[in-house]
Amino acid sequence: MRILCVDVGTGTQDVLLWDSAETLENCPQLVLPSPTVIVANAIRAATAAREPVLLTGVIQGGGPCHWAAEDHLRAGLPVYATPDAARTFDDELAKVERLGVRLVSEDEAAGLRGVRRIVLRDLYFDTLLRTLAAFGAPTALDAVAVAVFDHGNAPPGVSDRAFRFAYLARTVNAPTGLAAFAFLRHAIPPELTRMAAVAASLDPSIPLLVMDTGPAAVLGALEDPVVRATPSPLVVNVGNFHTLAFHLAAGRVAGLFEHHTGELTRAELERYLDRLAAGTLTNDEVFADMGHGALIADPAAPPPSRTVAIGPRRALLAGSPLAPYLAVPHGAMMLAGCYGLLRAFAAHVPEAADAITASLGPAYQPAA
What we know:
Nucleotidyltransferase, domain 5; alpha/beta; 3 domains
C-alpha cells in the first residue's frame, strides 16, 4: 500500500511517500518551501519587475502570500484575483476588495494580458509526483493524505479566530480522538473551505483524507517512545505561524490553547503553558492577546508529567525552565504531521490499519 502524505505549513510542506513494502526509514521524505512561500516569492518577483499580478486557482494558506500581495499593492501595482483565489485572503470578498485587490471572473481572467499569472493551491500534486519519479520512486498511489490549517468560513461579522477555535473546542474529545480532526473526501464539513479546496484540486478518483495541521502534528508526536511513556504529556507544536498546545490525560484532551507564534515571546509562551497545565487558562485572555482561544476540558485532570515540544520553531523554548523534551517521532521531527496523517488514515480506513500498524507499530495507548 502506498500513501502520499503532505503536511502543508506556513514555512514548509513536509512530504512522506509511505510504502508498506518499505521500512519506514527508507520511504522518501521531503521538506520543501510551503505553497504560500512559493506564491509569495512569485509575487515579489513580479513586484521587482513592475508587473501586474493575476491570482487564479483555489483557496490556499495565506500569511506570506497575503503580505506579498499587500506589498505589491503598496508599490502601486495591480493585483487581480478570481473569487476562489481571493478567498485565500478573506472569505468575505468585500474585505478583499477593500485591500485593493481587483476581483475578476474566470472569463475576465482568461482575457487579461500583460499580467504575471500565479496559480494558488495547497497541493502541488503533479509537481511532487514528478519530483519523486525523477529519483526513481514509485508513484502509483493508493491514497493521498493532506494536512492544512483551516480557519473555516466564518459567518459575516464573526471572527475567524473565534470561529476556528469553536470548531476545535467542539471536536477535541470526539470518540475517535485526534483523528476526529481528519475527514475523508466525502465527509469534509462545508465550512472547512480550505480542506474542500484541496479536495477540489485532486482527481476525485484518488482516495483522499484531509486533516488539520495542529492535531496532525500532536498525533504524530505521540509516535515518540518517550512521549508514549509519559502518563500526562503537555504537547506543544510551535509552528512557523501558529502554536497549538494539548494537555493530554488518560488519552483525552484535558485542555488546549492556540496562538500565533509571532505574537509570543518565550516568557509569554511559558506563562500560557504553565496556566494550561494548572487548568486556569481562560479563552478570553488568549483571544484578547490576538490568539485563537483556550479550553480547559477537565479542570480536575492531573498536572502534566512532561512538557513535549515539536515544530520548526520549538527553539522558542530553548533554555526554558520547563525543560521541554524535544520529540523526534520515528527519527524525523519535521514529519510528525505526516505520521499523524497516517494514524488518522488508519482510524478512518480500517482496511489500511493493519499495514499502517505493521509499519509504525501499535497505536498510542496512554501510559499508566
